[in-house]
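> run fold uroporphyrinogen-III C-methyltransferase
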Amino acid sequence: MGKVYLVGAGPGDPELLTLKAMRLLKTADVVIYDRLCNPLFLHLTKRTAKLIYCGKKPYHHAMKQEKINEALVEYGKSEGEIVRLKGGDPSIFGRVREEIDCLERAKLPYEIVPGITAASGAAAYAGVTLTDRESSSHVTLSTAHRKGDHGESEQMAGFTKHGTACFYMGMENLPFIKKKLLEQAVALDLPVAIISWGSYGRQKKIVGTLSSIEQLVEQADLINPALIIAGDVVSRAPAESWFEKLPLFGKKILYITEKPFSFEKMVEFTSRGADIWFQEVGPNRDKRFDALTKKFLKENDFTDFYFENEGSEALFKTKC
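> ok
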């Protein structure tokens, strides 16, 4: 019998991955990972590890939750170490309770490994402090909806009164969130920030008010995954955060190499704000990543390309 680890991958910056999560990824026999995990983390796994994608997009699931539960039990009974890798923290809107229940019914051992959740990660990288002695004494984390409930009775006004509200998975629900706040006498000029892909080099931030935020989102064509932050703390944040000032912020780099992936090499770029993808090429490449790379290249554009040959320390760089 194996053991299942429900692991938080953090918001996306590789250096926000916990040491325990990194250790488990290196030793895992099976990794079941979702859409909100930085896929570069999979390069930390051993070549014999099985990688299973179970990502969820709005209205499209690669695997339904019931199938994920079944896979955890199936592999947990037959394999060694199973890592269920989740974006952010598994216990905050990560459906971890449903997965724990199925593991307990199957009498399978498990551990929960916390990670940095989007509210603290994305806010920090956008320059927003969630609490402030002058304007915010509490923070509320909400999805604005629950299973089997449309949130009609949700009392949201208290979320932002002398505090900060963080709405997860809220882009489709932005009109509803605005409507409920206004119905509960929240001011039209309440500061609101929306952060997409927080802590990645592709991070986007929009700042406005409750009255203007929908129009700003439409103009910017902002998409999920995104975090909505509402409260006076937003107005106290700088226009440009420390992360957005890094020298490579906004650069989307494709690094093509014949050498094995190096976590240290990746951090050389991400620590300076870049959004990077490593594509290993050549007959000795890790072929587990062929399909993932094809999907990533189809969904993303790049500003810079780096080429590295086996046995060479020199890089040839070009811009598109």
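The longest helix spans residues 65-78.
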